[in-house]
Amino acid sequence: MNISYFAEFVALSESLNFSATASQLSISQPALSNHIQALEEELGVKLFERTRRSVALTKEGRLLLADARNLLDQYADMHRFSQKNLADNCIFTVGGWLESPIVMSQLATSVRRFHDASGVQLKMMSVQGYATNMAEELNSGKIDFIAAHRGTFPAESNEPLDCLPFCTDCFAIAVTSENPMAGKGETTMEDLAQLTFIHLTGPGFEAGWNQVVAACEEAGFTPRERPVFMESATETSMLDLADSECFVFSFGGLANGMFFAGRPDLTVVPVRSASFKVDLFYKEANLHPTLRQFVEFLKG
């Protein structure tokens, strides 16, 4: 049973004119006739008396009219409830740099503020994996957002992504206990000019390294570097540092103890004068309308 046939039946019952009803519904007159005939055959009753000059409801048609209107009202109510339920409980997926408590905290705060402002409850599902490997999934609509270092997905790529500035996460350095920086409560980029920086060259590290270089140059120097290949961020816990070297990472990572746990030979010092810039990448054309509202809210 096609619900649209009942809508056509009600419209025809009100106008009693096939041509006018077909025009109103933006369908052809033969299609309207076929739909009414199909409804009559399915119900086993004749709904209209038709002559060359007039169209009139039969007794059965008049009886059906009230029920058809009620059915359409119930369908409209159900559709509105379904759409509202979808809007009020929208699940979105996010991947990328989720090991940072700063990023996760900002995501949770943004969802809560959006709910307070709009009444819409978003539910977040995280997706594990390197941000650089997720561009295809973002373009295909399999995931909704990627939180990643600014510059992870260049704007000049073949399939450019939309993005918005999301949060910042202060630099920290890991140094040996013999390093001059080890005794400081905090330091600045200018203090690091004489050190050699560890440059991780594995997958997903380049955008972060570019931000480190930019911070050094802003402080007035070009960093000396020692390239080290690593497959993942978890391997940094095994990093060997000389006394003249430093490794820059996210200070927010300290919050869950994921960096350099159990390494008494290393000291972590916050760098308060510089931060990693984190963007939220997305493909606007793929987003659910509610998530587009969320993006506009974040742009604020």
TrEMBL record:
Pfam families: HTH_1, LysR_substrate. One of its GO terms (molecular function) is DNA-binding transcription factor activity. InterPro entries: LysR_HTH_N, LysR_subst-bd, WH-like_DNA-bd_sf, WH_DNA-bd_sf. CDD domains: PBP2_LTTR_substrate (cd05466). GO terms for cellular component: protein-DNA complex. Keywords: DNA-binding, Transcription, Transcription regulation. Residues 1-58 form the HTH lysR-type domain. The keyword Flavoprotein does not apply. The keyword Transcription applies. It comes from the Bacteria. Belongs to the LysR transcriptional regulatory family. This is DNA-binding transcriptional LysR family regulator.
